[in-house]
Amino acid sequence: MNNHHRINFFKKLFLFCFCIGIVPVITLGYFSYAKSSALLLDKANRSSAESVEQTRLRFEQKMKMVDNTQTQFIGASAVISAMEQRLDSSNYLLYEDLIQSIHRLQTYEFGLAEVYLVNLYQDWILDSRGQSSFEQHYLAKSIDAYVGIPKASFWASMKLPWYEDGNPLQWNMALVKKIPNNSIKPMGLLVAILPCIELNKMLPQGGEPGEFYVLDDKLRVIASAHPEQVGIDLSKDPVIGQIQGEQLEANQFQTDIGNEAYGITYRKSSYNSWTYVNKIHIRDIKQESRAIGWLTIAICLSLLLFLLLLSFQGSRQLYRPIRRLYDIVLKAPDTPKLSPRKDELSWIESKLHMLLSNQAQMSHQLKEFFVHKLLQGAVGANEIMERSDSLGLSSWKSMRVLCVRIDTMESTNYNEWDRDLLLFAIHNITSELIAAELRLPPVVINEFQVTVIGSHAEHPGESKAEAYEQGKAIQTAIQDYLKLSVSMGISSAITHPADMPGAFLEAKEALAYGVRLGYESILFLEDMHSPLMTVPVTFPQHIVSELTEQIRLLDEGKANLLIEEFMAVVADKSISHQEFQLYLMRLLVELLRLYQDNGGQMQDLVLNEKAVVSEMFLLKSNKEIVVWFQMSVIRPLIAHIEQRRDSLYTSISDQILTIIHSEYDTPLTLELCGARLSYHPEYVGRVFRKETGFAFGEYLSGYRLQIAKKWLVETDMTVTEISERLMYNKPQNFIRYFRKMEQITPGQYRELFHSKSKRAAEQQETSSAETFAAKKE
Known about the structure:
Largest sheet: 6 strands, antiparallel
Number of helices: 28
CATH architecture of the domain at 359-523: 2-Layer Sandwich
Strand content: 5-15%
CATH class of the domain at 359-523: Alpha Beta
Number of strands: 16
Distance between the termini: 101 Å
Shape: elongated
Radius of gyration: 70 Å
């Protein structure tokens, strides 16, 4: 046995148990990983946001400290006084005071590279190195640009010209304050230079994920984890463009940069409009979640392995009883070929359905067998009593036997081989049309479909009407569905099941009367017995006598009309079916006697060893009986008589020809031949003409002429001798007859024949000589 088929359900059961466990494990693992990843991502986002915020606070704290010190400086009286005068030797103390204050502003804590005090009206600029002319100073152009900015205090980026590109010291941030403070037309400026490299020191260092950078209000990088990026203009960068487009103070979002996913965290400062940005690679954010994912996978795989073993053991325990049932199914002798599409339970289910179907079928067959035995009278009284309740017989007031017979197969699409199938179809139609509680299971007995129908009616007339309606419905359905004509015989009403054999015989007997009534009859036996007359009915012998006479005369047409007349007369008589069959038997005996009287043998008339009487009694209508007599009896009988007469005619003509051929030189006459054959001369002459096509005298004269021609060429007899020998009264009569038939006289016929023979001999001699000469040469 193929094990592939034997473990189908085991595999399904194992997979089901495994899936029940694997789904929660995978779901739990997935959600735990997803949740932890989400938490880590949220933690990373919050950490990034906090880092950006802390960076902003550090930056602004330092900016504000520088701003405050510068504000205090420009508010000093010395600075205000210096804006109104030139710095020369006369103002030496003021100069020293300013220089000391500038040095104090450049403390290490602030990280200022230089502080410039500019007097716009007195054309001087003061820094930690001393005083110089403002107009000649290298920062004169940048400082002049600051004057036009409509702000009293602001931060601006500054690129020192003496550094090469890429030098970290090239870019600086300048805190510009106008003197006096908040004046529209300043007298001077205080410019504090803060190198961008000092700003980079305030960015998160080491351990902090992401790439930090700070943009000024012009979106130029002023601080970055990568110093070489300082000074780069990012106003056209798509990420910065998205930040600017959001119009939010702070936010986080993800974006793709170079096919890589990044998380962007930014914060815009309201203090100086700087933007603080942290760009973190998503891969870095998920690095910790990947470790958690691998741990989750390891745990899930361990649980799955445990579930695999547990599911295998549990499925095997659950599968054992199913396996035992399946093995029992496989050992059944009628188990069909296994199909890979079916599992064990499907085969067990199919087998159970098969058993239940067989049980139902056998139960139905047992009921049909019981009904069959009941109709045949083979069931005892005790068994009838035991089965009455199960069959519902006890609830019926009366019962009748309905017998259905197919009328004919002619003019239908069926042949005799289809009879059994048609009876089965009629069986099904009957089962459908009559309710199960009003009938016993229909059965087929020989050529009949038999149904025992019950009735709850009290009066026999009511049950008879019910039986007729049921029979009519069956007959109509058979005609509609099968296009078939059937007749029905219905028995008298009975009240006890033991009377069913007699009722069955009554139904068949009633059906036998349909022979005279035609096709599609529904007959009750009581209706057939009532019209029978007690006065004896005579047999139509005169029709039979005339029929035999027409057969002797070989007139098949009149014989067929007479058989039809006979059947019409007999069918019209009020006689029982037994008498009707006896009339048919008497007619058949008369015709068979005629056949034997004409030298026929019974085995020649009965083809294929058919039982003639039984075949006749099986016919179902007058028309079939008429056709059967015409085709099976009358036509063969006429053919036999005609053949016998033809044989007799041939014998008579052959004997006369023998007499003529042997006794042509004697005085032969038709009377003489008739007397010798014991037949009338006219009959002999008529038979001879029919067989040979010549009259007796015509044939005799012709034969004598042939003998005369033979004697003329083969003998030396004279014409007179020949005429006398051939029984001519005078030679002139012979010569006249010969000339009439051959157009020449006998003497001329002889001379003509001899001359032809002589020329033929000469030609033969000449030809032989020429042949001999040719051979000699």
